[in-house]
Amino acid sequence: MKIAIASDHAGYQLKEFLKGYLEEAGNEIIDFGTNSPESCDYPDYAHPAALAVESGECTTGIGICGAGNGMQITLNKHQGIRAALCWIPEIAELARKHNNANFLVLPARFISPVEAADIVDVYMKTPFEGGRHQKRVDKIPYNIPVEGEII
Questions:
Q1: Averaged pLDDT of the chain
Q2: What contacts 6, CB < 8 A, 6 or more positions away?
Q3: How many other CB atoms are found less than 10 A from the CB of residue 52?
Q4: Distance, CA of 97 to CA of 128 (rounded, Å)
């Protein structure tokens, strides 16, 4: 699997750990930065990673920042991204099964590397259920309604 990965300074160490973990499992990792624990701005790394997933260059993505909120908010500005902030494996499973999440976001300040690996494993192995969930996922991108149209 080809995986985009991005973090800010707070997520840098966890990103580096997960890169090695995922590469050992045979995945190809495209690292969009940051490349040090020096203070930086998460959108600078989130946007290029999101574009790689939207375009199909990468199969999925992982974003990491301190609480996960900034990365998730930024990623979800992209119409083709469904980024899910996950701090336990069960949330990652439901994000994939029910929301067809294509970007996993992790809160580096609140989980250990071992917990992150468990979350990543569940996220990567869980398929989208489709069915009744597909119509909901189809409604996620917002299209400005034409006058008189009900959405």
A1: 95
A2: 15, 31, 32, 33, 34, 42, 45, 46, 48, 49, 61, 62, 63, 64, 71
A3: 20
A4: 4
125 vs 104: CA distance, rounded Å: 13
How confident is the model over 75-109, as pLDDT tens digits? 999 999 999 999 999 999 999 999 999 999 999 99
Active site positions, annotated: 65, 98
What token pair was written down for 79?
A: 């119409």
Give the Cα separation of 98 and 8 in Å (integer). Answer: 28
* Burial (Cβ within 10 Å: 0-12, 13-18, ≥19) of residue 105: buried
pTM exceeds 0.85 for this model: yes
Please name every residue paired with 61 in a beta bridge, in sequence order, or none if there are none.
Answer: 4, 103
Q: Within the chain, where are the H helices?
A: 12-24, 43-55, 69-75, 89-99, 113-125, 132-138
Mean pLDDT of the 106-125 span: 98
CA distances 133 to 13, 48, 53, 71, 97, Å, are 35, 28, 21, 25, 8
Phi, psi of 119 (to 5 degrees): -65, -45
Reported as half-sphere exposure (CB side, CA atoms, 13 A), residue 36 has a value of 3
